[in-house]
């Protein structure tokens, strides 16, 4: 059985990854299929430098892995269950309150 501290750490890492819309989009793209950084940057419409920073965060959180393929690197979800977790989380949030918007300010009482 996992300890509460381990559970909190795991959820905190997942939350940190989901806290940024670009990282959310990366995870959703990788949920569909592994991808090379150039393809991800093009799909997202961002620079490779900016993408690299987000991929580093997702790697540090343990959610994605870099897989060498010849001279290139391909990114994929660290575990296929993460894709299912993203689907389940999205479905649960929409089922509870589909018309809510979480404001990004502390004075509004969110987060």
Automatic annotation (TrEMBL):
SMART domains referenced in this protein's UniProt entry, alphabetically: HTH_ARSR
The organism's place on the tree of life at top rank: Bacteria
Gene Ontology MF term list: cadmium ion sensor activity; DNA binding; DNA-binding transcription factor activity; lead ion binding
Domain HTH arsR-type: start-end pairs: 4-100
GO-annotated biological processes: response to cadmium ion; response to lead ion
PROSITE patterns for this protein: HTH_ARSR_2
CDD domains for this protein: HTH_ARSR
InterPro entries attached to this UniProt entry: ArsR-like_HTH, HTH_ArsR_DNA-bd_dom, HTH_Metal-responsive_Reg, WH-like_DNA-bd_sf, WH_DNA-bd_sf
NCBIfam families associated with the record: HTH_metalloreg
PANTHER family in the cross-refs: HTH-TYPE TRANSCRIPTIONAL REGULATOR CMTR (PTHR39168:SF2), TRANSCRIPTIONAL REGULATOR-RELATED (PTHR39168)
Name under which the protein is recorded: ArsR family transcriptional regulator
Protein source organism: Streptomonospora alba
Source organism phylogeny: Bacteria, Bacillati, Actinomycetota, Actinomycetes, Streptosporangiales
